[in-house]
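Raw record, unedited: CoA transferase subunit B
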Amino acid sequence: MLTREQMAQRVAQELRDGDYVNLGIGMPTLVANYVPSGMDVMMQSENGLLGMGAFPTQAELDADMINAGKQTVTARKGAAIFDSAQSFAMIRGGHVDLTVLGALEVDTQGNIASWMIPGKMVKGMGGAMDLVAGAENIIVMMTHASKQGESKLLTRCTLPLTGAGCIRRVITELAWLEIEDDTFVLREYAPGVSIEEIRAKTAGALRVADDVREMVLTPQVQEAP
């Protein structure tokens, strides 16, 4: 199975030169550490930072420089700091090319549930509802099943929705999947993971792509523009 870092490395392969990218709280923040060499990507944090860099070394640590999850981060050359009103104006205005979000559930209709479990204390909605409505592309990073072994890839989400019909790509520790025609399409499987295991842990309809392949974790490297 993939580690959290390997999942982030695979997501980073979807970045494109010149992208404005928002990384959600949790696993998605790791993507900032794997931007391909020579690629110019501007990471946006909803608390008011455009130009977020990788996590700091001890020497770079600044307790006042944080992301939306209150983790310390760095700022790249050309970064800008502003208030959350301006940040959400960027998001709601459709100026974010890609957002990477965590999720509790995703279903075959492209719905996402990421903010509430009835009867349990969770962090809440945050900016996720704005992001799923404003971003051009969304990738979900999530575990394939719960700690109890229950699938999180469903025919229909059981938890309150964050957004409807907005998800097309999902990565888990087992696989890279796309959602097409009310079906999870298996495009890539993690090294050492069988298609049978993925099928057994996917509650929603699953189709194996004709060109399915083992996931390659080598980051894309592009020349600087």
